[in-house]
Amino acid sequence: MPILRRNCGDLLKMINKRKKTLLSIVFCMLAAGFLLTGCGGSASDADADAPQEAQTEETAETEAAEPEANAASPDPVLLYMGHASIRIVTGEDKVIYIDPYAGEGYDLPADLILVTHDHYDHNSLGRIPDRKEDCTLITQAEALESGTFALGYVSVEAVEAGNNEYHDINECVGYVLTFSNDKKVYVSGDTSKTDQMADLADQGIDYAFFCCDGVYNMDLEEAAECAELVQAKHNIPYHIVEAEDPEHFDMERAERFPAPDKLILQPGEELTIE
Fold it and tell me: What's the CATH number where 232 sits?
């Protein structure tokens, strides 16, 4: 029995010693975890955060670049100068003059000049002395020969114009201009009703200018019939008085223009083509 008591005592001492060792190990592990937590998280947490931060920076750069990549050119701005004279500045800052003669606003260097026919009140090219080196001049001669012109910032199509008494249909044109924002402007030039006007309805024209002085061209009623054929979204009376008085605009006559969706522009007024 004395031997048994001694063995049991030795066993108890051994167990107590191992308990202390295990407690020491557990304590060390807990202490290490506390230190890692106090430093802002585990290494795995830090690794998880890094890709997220990189992705956020990349996304920000992409979002910052998107507006520039998706930015469209501004809409063209049209200035009605008077009589049959029009200036258009495209979204690409290209300057177009149509039938130069009346009004003010010829100070911008021309990129394109369009002439519907050879009468002085549509073809006063001396009013545009400042032209770009690559300025394009399209008169009725080039228009009748080629028909269409693709210039990048605008596409120009020559269409029929004329009447039996004053304007030979073989010497006159009108124009349909299509801009980079897909908007279309029709300028009739000096004309009466033509066979082609009914076909223009298929083009979805946004703004149509109709001459209506009633002397050398059609009167208000015939111009309104043409507007019904062309079916533009907006119908604008122009060339509304005789050429000898280009600075005058007959508002009373313009207001009597019986076309649907009428839009009146006075000389010096601008229109955004949108």
Answer: 3.60.15.10
